[in-house]
């Protein structure tokens, strides 16, 4: 089960404390034993090699934890290998220190027994490391895992029984270690497991690069060679230092090079992510001048790039087309298929918006022509007639949409789906329709919402989604979206997600009142931040262009809008973020426009200060006040009031 970042940090700290403590104890015991002058030269050499091996093991542990470039299973198996080798080196040191000491005879037996367990455990962990490195999990591998696990259990039990029967080793009455008659068979399990692992590497050689095969064979060869050599010699215990050196090579060559390759792959995924996000509309509200609907959409990409996308556009003044889709697969192929599909759907939707089934049928046939990767796409596409509230839609294997009638609760529209597009040519998709009344909301999403999972592998599901949709939002589409995302984040509790979470909310407000066409109020609410300036100017320019405002007057208004909004962004909320509301009251017949700026920040009347003396040079004139002075000079009227806890600054311009 995945662990959180905090749990990993605590585990790493405890493991680091263990490494340092054991190294300290080993050096302390060695120093005491050396001071008594009872250690033979051979023991000193072996103990020194063990201490160096332990120090190297701790260094490898630190850099592995800091790097964390393995996948989680791969890292765990590598660290377990490191821990076992480190422990074996410490036990070997203890064995050499107490050898021949009659007062430590029981410690000698225990230390040697545990040391003998190191070889089969490391062999099994090496098998697990290679399996996780390959990322294979087929039935054959699972069977071998069970067999090797049982074999490891038997090997451990046999070593424990050795304490009674001494067939591998025993401690002589004088306190010295002595090999048993069957010592040669003590590493039989370890050798068999290593050979089996090498066979797996050979069979999977096409999935490895040459340097990877060499390193893995080295890990198996050197311990095997030392084990065979130790059968015929006694005196030098080099298995732990040699294995630690090979672990160092494994890290330096396998992990570092693997990290570099993964970095290249990550760059490609980032590029795919950028492609995916760059293709999606990001400005909300997308049509601030249209009062018939409110719309908001979002996509939260997962770590692995998927192919989710949404889209919306107006093919004419009375229709809005909305689309949400999910491409099968991950990575760059999914991102490229997403681009192609989105383009085809929009091109067809701009011309065939009178029938959603025609859009899907045409795009499906186009995708099936050259779909060599056999990828498919689930799609929900709908066309809203703004003057009537009729919503026509077609569903190609996508998630059930949810609808909320005014003053009601969200419920799923469960209807029979058609197959996804890209599967098979000449599928006849069916169009259906419902009537939306003012205040009704449609919510569509991808399976990343319902299939978001927590640490217990539970799915977020449709029930939790509907409960989150019914949380208070006062008809605000942004808040509705936020309620869902907050509920998902609380449910998953930091668990990594492997699917994009994409949502689109559409609220129908009713047809536009034609009686107010010549004199109507339009409103935009944005975060009081200079990054929103382009959206504010775009909002103002859209209204002015509809009124056929002269270019010179429009430029004057743009300068005034920029000055006022930037001042709000910089000074209205000194202690945190806030919002600004821009309301435009336009009268096309009278050729006049009134723009109201509202914020709930620090009360401030910019008109209370005296106008700057523009006859003075810039060096002699006090800083500030010039911007609002230019606004006052270029506009026909500028007024300020503080009402209901809001700063309200209004500018008017006739043309």
Provide a brief overview of the structure.
The chain has 655 residues and is α+β, with helices and mostly antiparallel strands.
Protein traits:
3 domains; 655 residues; Heat Shock Protein 90; five-stranded antiparallel beta sheet; alpha+beta; Phosphatase 2c, domain 1; single chain; 16 helices; 50% helix; 17% strand; 17 strands
Description:
- This protein is of the alpha+beta class and 655 residues long.
- The protein folds into three domains: 5-266; 279-508, PPM-type phosphatase domain (Phosphatase 2c, domain 1, 4-Layer Sandwich), CATH 3.60.40; 514-654, Heat Shock Protein 90 (2-Layer Sandwich).
- 50% of the residues lie in helices and 17% in strands.
- It contains 16 helices and 17 strands.
- The chain has helices at residues 5-36, 41-67, 72-98, 105-134, 139-165, 188-203, 210-232, 239-278, 331-351, 356-369, 447-450, 461-469, 477-492, 533-546, 551-571, 626-634, and strands spanning 169-171, 177-179, 293-300, 307-316, 319-327, 377-385, 390-396, 402-404, 410-412, 432-435, 441-445, 501-508, 519-527, 579-587, 592-599, 637-643, 646-654.
- The strands form four sheets. Strands 3-12-11-8-9 form a five-stranded antiparallel sheet.
- Helix 1 packs parallel to helix 3 (72-98) and helix 9 (331-351) packs across helix 10.
- The model is unreliable at 514-518 (pLDDT under 50).
């Amino acid at each position: 089960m995945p662990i959180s970042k905090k749990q990993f940090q605590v585990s790493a700290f405890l493991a680091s404390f263990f490494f340092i403590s054991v190294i300290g104890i080993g050096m302390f015991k060695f120093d005491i034993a050396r001071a008594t002058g009872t250690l033979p030269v051979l023991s000193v050499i072996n103990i020194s090699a063990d201490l160096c091996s332990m120090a190297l093991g701790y260094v490898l542990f630190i850099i592995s934890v800091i790097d964390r470039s393995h996948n989680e299973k791969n890292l765990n198996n590598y660290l377990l290998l490191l821990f076992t080798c480190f422990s074996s080196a410490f036990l070997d040191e203890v064995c050499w220190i107490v050898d021949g000491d009659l007062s430590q005879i029981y410690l000698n037996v225990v230390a040697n027994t545990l040391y003998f367990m190191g070889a089969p455990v490391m062999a099994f962990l090496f098998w697990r490391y290679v399996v996780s490195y390959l990322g294979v999990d087929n039935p054959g591998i699972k069977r071998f895992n069970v067999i090797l696990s049982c074999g490891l259990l038997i090997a451990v039990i046999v070593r424990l029984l050795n304490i009674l029967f001494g067939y591998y080793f025993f401690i002589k009455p004088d306190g010295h270690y002595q090999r048993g008659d069957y010592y040669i068979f003590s590493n039989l399990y370890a050798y068999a497991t290593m050979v089996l692992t090498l066979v797996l590497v050979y069979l999977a050689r096409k999935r490895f690069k040459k340097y990877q095969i060499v390193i893995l064979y080295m890990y198996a060869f050197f311990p095997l060679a030392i084990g065979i050599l130790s059968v015929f010699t006694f005196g030098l215990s080099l298995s732990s230092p040699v294995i630690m050196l090979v672990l160092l090579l494994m890290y330096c060559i396998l992990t570092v090079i693997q990290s570099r390759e993964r970095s290249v792959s990550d760059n490609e995924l980032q590029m795919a992510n950028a492609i995916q996000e760059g293709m999606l509309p990001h400005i909300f509200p997308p049509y601030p001048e249209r009062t018939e609907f409110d719309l908001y959409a979002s996509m939260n990409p997962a770590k692995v790039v998927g192919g989710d996308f949404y889209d919306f556009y107006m093919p004419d003044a009375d229709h809005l087309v909305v689309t949400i889709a999910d491409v099968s697969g991950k990575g760059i192929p999914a991102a490229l298929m997403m681009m192609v599909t989105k383009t085809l759907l929009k091109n067809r939707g701009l011309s065939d918006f009178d029938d959603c089934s025609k859009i899907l049928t045409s795009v499906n046939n186009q995708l099936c022509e050259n779909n060599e990767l056999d990828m498919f796409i689930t799609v929900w596409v709908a066309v809203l007639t703004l003057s009537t509230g009729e919503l026509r839609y077609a569903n190609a294997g996508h998630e059930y949409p949810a609808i909320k009638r005014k003053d009601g609760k969200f419920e799923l529209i469960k209807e029979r789906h058609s197959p996804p597009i890209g599967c098979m040519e000449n599928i006849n998709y069916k169009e259906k329709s419902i009537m939306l009344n003012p205040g009704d909301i449609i919510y569509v999403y991808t399976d990343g919402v319902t299939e978001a999972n927590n640490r217990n592998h539970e799915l977020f599901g449709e029930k939790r989604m509907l409960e989150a949709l019914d949380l208070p939002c006062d008809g605000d589409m942004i808040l509705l979206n936020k309620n869902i995302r907050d509920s998902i984040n609380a449910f998953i509790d930091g668990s990594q997600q492997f699917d994009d979470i994409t949502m689109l909310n559409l609220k129908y407000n009713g047809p536009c009142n034609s009686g107010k066409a010549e004199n109507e109020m339009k409103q935009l609410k944005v975060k009081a931040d200079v990054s929103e300036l382009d959206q504010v100017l775009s909002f103002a320019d859209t209204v002015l262009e509809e009124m056929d405002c002269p270019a010179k007057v429009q430029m004057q208004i743009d300068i005034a809008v920029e000055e006022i909004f930037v001042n709000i962004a910089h000074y209205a909320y000194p202690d945190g973020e806030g919002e600004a509301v821009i309301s435009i009251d336009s009268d096309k017949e009278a050729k006049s426009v009134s723009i109201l700026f509202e914020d709930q920040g620090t009360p401030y009347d910019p008109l209370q200060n005296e106008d700057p003396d523009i006859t003075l040079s810039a060096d002699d004139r006090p800083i500030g006040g010039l911007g609002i002075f230019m606004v006052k000079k270029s506009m026909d009227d500028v007024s300020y009031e503080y009402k209901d806890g809001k700063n309200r600054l209004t500018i008017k311009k006739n043309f």
